[in-house]
Amino acid sequence: MAGFNVPIDQDLRWRISEGSDLMLHSKHIHGCQFRLVKFIESSPSASMCGWKDTAPISNGGNVEIYVRSP
């Protein structure tokens, strides 16, 4: 994946997709934590709420996250 620039001190909403890969992958963003907005097309369960640093994605799924750029 190529690098990209993100505005400083701004609220962002990202959608991360596993694509066609069906294996479990834990997605991690260096240097920040995030909150799950959608987890596999629905609201996250109580155990998935709060600030996270990884999000598990499997079966070609996706997550939508809220992140504040550092």
UniProtKB/TrEMBL annotation:
Pfam families: Cu-oxidase_2. Residues 4-68 form the Plastocyanin-like domain. This is Multicopper oxidase domain-containing protein. Coiled coil: none annotated.
